[in-house]
Specification:
CATH class of the domain at 391-595: Alpha Beta
Strand content: 15-25%
Strand order of the largest sheet: 11-16-15-14-12-13
Bound molecules: beta-D-glucopyranose
Number of helices: 25
CATH architecture of the domain at 391-595: 3-Layer(aba) Sandwich
CATH topology of the domain at 391-595: Rossmann fold
Largest sheet: 6 strands, mixed
CATH superfamily of the domain at 391-595: Glycoside hydrolase family 3 C-terminal domain
Structural class: alpha/beta
Distance between the termini: 66 Å
Length: about 775
């Protein structure tokens, strides 16, 4: 390692500005960085500059082959700025060595990866993580992910994914924090802080975040992935932009463009978005990378040929081209033809070099490449304990009639279902660095949890889907789970096992890859074959607990009526098995609350709590009324609202008060409520504050989340919870897109979810 470093300095020293060779590129302030980048850029050929803008696919190179691979050759020629999704510190070291020792200027590479919810220690999918409403936990998960990934050579993660989503058909609902901009912004801040640390990349476990997908990717028409997005600017600013803005303000080093169009222009070529909003309004000073082949895809969008779309992307404010080979392949010609200018290319190159400088890669290109770190950092006992604890916080108890849950460890427990015995399907989508062999199945976790106090019986019961083709689509990337037996054989076996049991736990739902990228669904109920199994299990008359594995809010209207207990477990990560056992057997009381509304039927989608009133409103849970805004065949109310989730204990809310019923634009008032745990279990509760602006210059939502606190209360304990309501919280983007608060009447609402709320009015003077 040391030798290589010396060799690097030796080869490159003559080309390096003195400041770098003597005192290190990372140390100084902006002036020092600028001088360093200026000098480096003055030595770069156009080809080398365009190389910095190039982020090709790596095809995961194996050790020793870096030089002979196509990527290795390109790196040696200075035609690559970074590579991504290579797992293994040795492979990364090989490639970095080629960059710093064999390319003319020795500019180090960025090594990126989709470390979206953990590296080998996998945390709940982001949707599940958001249901913790626990920002410390969110930050911890990102911190651990950064520590693990950086010890494997990664210095840049394509996370956080902060796209607001109101449509559970969209498979990537799993990757974001749900439907609410206030909560989404808090999560974005916590994730950026967790990845990047407090230290400005001083330490080699602080990696660069990439806020994605900018922008509005979570609102595709029909919930179909990559589809068109079109919405008013007021809606963008008020309902979708907050998490991106929060990510930028938290100092995220990079942003990723989205695949969709915005106002008829693909995000990757949308100057208003990338330059006016992101840099101009929000002051973002990092770099912008495209999503995978997004430049190339603009040909299909109908924006021109590769040369044209590449020029459009650059001029809009895109700095780095992921995989499309548009910048590398065409910008030289565009420059010659006057379709772009050198200033535009230089601005992008500068931003990439600045990122490398800020990460400290010029000072030490091997900073993140320390093979001795991995063994103690990756999947350490401490990390997996955190992952287990955090996963328990993400589960949402939807129903628990007669306190079926928690189960006692006694007698015979039948664990039945396609998700019961598959370790590979516990982590959820986007777990590229996961190591399935190290994870436990739910079945193993249950057996371990009960020891010899009870017996756990198992049967698969059904496949994921009766149709093998459909199941193949939903179990890709080494997560196959198909059983060759017929539906009847599987069911018969399950019923034989159930007959011997005292209680049945049904592990049902989606596989890991039934959600995530390119996994949109039009039917979001339990697959028919699993539904038949569930019906048959219920017909035994034994108590049934349903564990719903899901990467999106699923429609469970039938289940909510017929199954006594439902625990929504999302995909809990590498430690999901143990975490589910902790909750099912009562070691931990469930405390997660929904961050996306659960519809009654897919026909209600898009459905979200912070909607406008219509001019013909009706009560959400009332039946059809002619000429009122509703459906003939369904109430407007969802099955379970935003913010909803039960516990093994019950919480009582009382004494809701406001410190004043008037506030001024430079004042604030305090809302307080007393929360009492009046059940038998120590447990956590998530207390929520909503506000409503009664009259506005534009229509305002019926309520908006403006505060939340996760508190722990012992059985019998009471606590006063306070929220400060400031004018800032009353602000919104008006028709002119000015961020203002307007004097008048407001409502403050406090409670355990977005429906069960105590309400008090106040006035802004
Ligand atoms: C996804 C991104 C991801 C990128 C790189 C794309 O297909 O949309 O979220 O970061 O691939 O793997």
């Amino acid at each position: 390692m040391k030798l290589r470093k010396l060799a690097y300095y030796f080869v490159a020293a003559s080309l390096m500005p003195l400041s770098l060779a003597s005192c290190g590129g990372q140390k100084g302030g902006d002036a020092e960085m600028n001088a360093f980048v200026d000098e480096l850029m003055s030595k770069m050929t156009l080809e080398e500059k365009l190389g910095q803008l190039n982020l090709p696919a790596s095809d995961d190179i194996t050790t020793g082959q870096a030089k002979s691979s196509n990527i290795g050759t390109m790196v040696a020629e200075g035609k690559v700025g970074g590579v991504f999704n290579i797992k293994g510190v040795e492979k990364i070291r090989d490639l970095q060595r080629v960059a710093v020792e064999e390319s003319r200027l020795g500019i180090p590479l960025l090594f990126g990866m989709d470390v979206v919810h953990g590296y080998e220690t996998v945390f709940p999918i982001p949707l599940g993580l958001s249901c913790t409403w626990d920002m410390e936990a969110v930050e911890t998960s990102a911190r651990i992910a950064a520590r693990e990934a950086s010890s494997a050579g990664i210095c840049w993660t394509f996370s956080p994914m902060v796209d607001i989503c109101r449509d559970p058909r969209w498979g990537r609902a799993s990757e974001g924090s749900g439907e609410d901009p206030f909560l989404g912004a808090a999560v974005a801040r916590a994730m950026v802080k967790g990845y990047q640390g407090d230290d400005n990349f001083k330490s080699n476990d602080e990696i660069m975040a990439c806020v994605k997908h900018f922008a509005l990717y979570g609102a595709p028409e029909g919930g179909r992935d990559y589809n068109t997005v079109d919405m008013s600017r007021q809606r963008m600013f008020n309902e979708y932009f907050a998490p991106y803005k929060a990510g930028a303000e938290a100092g995220a080093g990079s942003f990723m463009t989205s695949f969709n169009t915005i106002d008829g222009i693909p995000a990757t070529a949308n100057k208003w978005l990338l330059t006016d909003v992101l840099r101009g309004m929000w002051g973002f000073d990092g770099f912008v990378v495209t999503d995978y082949t997004a430049i190339l895809e603009m040909i299909d969008h109908g924006m021109g040929d590769l040369q044209q779309v590449s020029a459009l992307a650059l001029k809009a404010g895109t700095d780095m081209d992921m995989v499309a080979d548009g910048f590398n392949g065409t910008l030289a010609q565009s420059l010659e033809e006057g379709k772009v200018n050198l200033g535009q290319i230089d601005a992008a190159v500068r931003r990439i070099l600045e990122a490398k400088y800020k990460l400290g890669l010029f000072e030490d290109p091997y900073k993140y490449i320390d093979p001795s770190r991995g063994e103690k950092e990756i999947y350490s006992q401490a990390n997996l304990e955190e992952a287990r604890r955090i996963a328990t916080e993400s589960f949402v108890l939807l129903k628990n009639d007669n306190n079926v849950l928690p189960l006692q460890k006694k007698g015979k427990i039948a664990l039945i279902g396609p998700l019961a015995n598959t370790a590979a399907n516990m982590p959820g989508t986007w777990s590229v660095a996961a190591n399935f062999e190290r994870y436990k199945t739910l079945y193993d976790a249950f057996k371990e949890a009960v020891g010899d106090e009870a017996e756990v019986l198992y049967a698969k019961g059904s496949n994921l889907e009766a149709d093998p083709e459909l199941e193949a689509y939903a179990t890709m990337f080494g997560r196959e789970m198909r059983d060759p037996r017929s539906e009847k054989e599987l069911l018969d076996e399950a019923l034989r096992v159930a007959a011997r049991a005292d209680v049945i736990v049904a592990a049902l739902g989606e596989s890991s890859e039934y959600s995530g990228e390119s996994s949109s669904r039009t039917i979001i109920t339990l697959p028919e074959t699993q539904h038949k199994l569930l019906e048959a299990l219920l017909a035994t008359g034994k108590p049934v607990v349903m564990l719903n594995f899901a990467g999106r809010p699923t429609v469970m209207t039938w289940e909510a009526e017929h199954v006594p207990a439902i625990l929504n477990v999302w995909f809990g990560g590498s430690e999901a098995g143990d975490a589910i056992a902790d909750v099912v057997f009562g070691k931990v009381s469930p405390s997660g609350k929904l961050t996306m509304t659960m519809p009654r039927s897919v026909g209600q989608v898009p459905i979200y709590y912070n909607h406008f009133n219509t001019g013909r409103p009706k009560a959400d849970d009332s039946k059809f009324e002619k000429f009122r805004s509703g459906y003939i065949d369904s109430p407007n109310a969802p099955l379970y609202p935003f913010g909803y989730g039960l516990s093994y204990t019950t919480f009582d809310y009382s004494d809701f008060t406001l410190s004043a019923d008037e506030m001024t634009e430079d004042g604030s008032i305090t809302a307080s409520v007393v929360v009492t745990n009046n059940g038998k279990y120590d447990a956590d509760e998530i207390v929520q504050l909503y506000l409503r602006d009664m009259v506005g210059s534009s229509v305002r939502p019926v309520k908006e989340l403006k505060g939340f606190q996760r508190i722990s209360l012992r059985a019998g304990e009471s606590r006063k919870v306070e929220f400060e309501i400031t004018p800032e919280l009353l602000k919104f983007y008006n028709y002119e897109l000015e961020f203002v608060c307007e004097p008048g009447e407001f409502l403050a609402m406090v409670g355990p979810d977005s429906e069960r709320l105590s309400v008090l009015p106040f006035t802004l003077k």
